[in-house]
Structures are given as C-alpha cells and as structure tokens.
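WARN retry 2 of 3 for item q-0093 after timeout on previous attempt; input resubmitted unchanged.
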Amino acid sequence: MVTLQEILAAREDRQRLQREMLERNPGMTLLCLTVVMPGSMKRNRQSLIVANAALDALTAQFGSSGLQTRDLPTGFEAYLLTSLPAVEAKRAVCRIEQEHPLGRLFDIDVIGQDGVPLQRADIGLEPRKCLLCDQPARWCMRGHTHSTEEILARIDEMVNAYV
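OK item q-0093 returned
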C-alpha cells in the first residue's frame, strides 16, 4: 500500500524525468505510460498484466526508441520517444486506448517539446468514459460516484477476461 504523499512524490519525479527526457531529445515526442489503478495498492497482479499489455501495444505501434521502464510501489511507468508529431502520436495512442481490450486501463500521456501533455479534446475526442457508467470518468472520479471496490471489481473482470 502506498500513501498519498508517495503518490504525489512519484508524480513529481515522473514530471522531472519527462522534462529531462524532452531536454535530452529535442524534436521528439514523449509517451508516458501509467496504469489506471484506484486505491492505495498500485502494484498488483492486475496492474502488471495491464502494464505489460500496454507496453506491448505501445512498442508494436511506436518501436522501442528510448524506452525506459520503472516498476515502482506507486505503479508501473514506461517512457518512450517517437519522432511523430505530438498530435499524430496522440491519435495513435487514443486508438490503442479505445481498441485494446484493456485500453481503458492504460493511461498514456503524449507530451510535445513544450512539455505540456495533449488532451483528447486537442484532437477532437470526447473525454474518456467511466469504467462503470456512461458519464465522463473525471466527473465520476471527482464526485466519488462509485466505490473503489466497485471499480476494482470491474478491473478484475476486464483483466480476467483478457487473460
């Protein structure tokens, strides 16, 4: 189990690493993969299955240029560089997230040279839907519409159906 402070520190460290990778690789677009896993247990059987599936999908689409992975108590992270413009990379990533059986559990940020992650709206897409209902995921997350147990049960169903 990880604390909120550990999660926030990991996020800051991830942002630092992203900045460093972009500075060292001018003209490249950075992809940053994490796994959607609510609650205080970020690294478990399900999260590792999702992470490996996402990594396979990403490297099949983009190759493994500059690939770095970190398997941390706060969750799996992967970083990948591509020469594709950020908008093209975002379109490809969104296709993966929409078409892969576990894609809804992939959180793949696309970060251009300006260091700012592209949003789905930047390429004309709607926000991601909740795992349990048709509302935007952020709306349910902020409103605590569903319990962590309900969401984890749905994640278990998705992972078990995949394996």
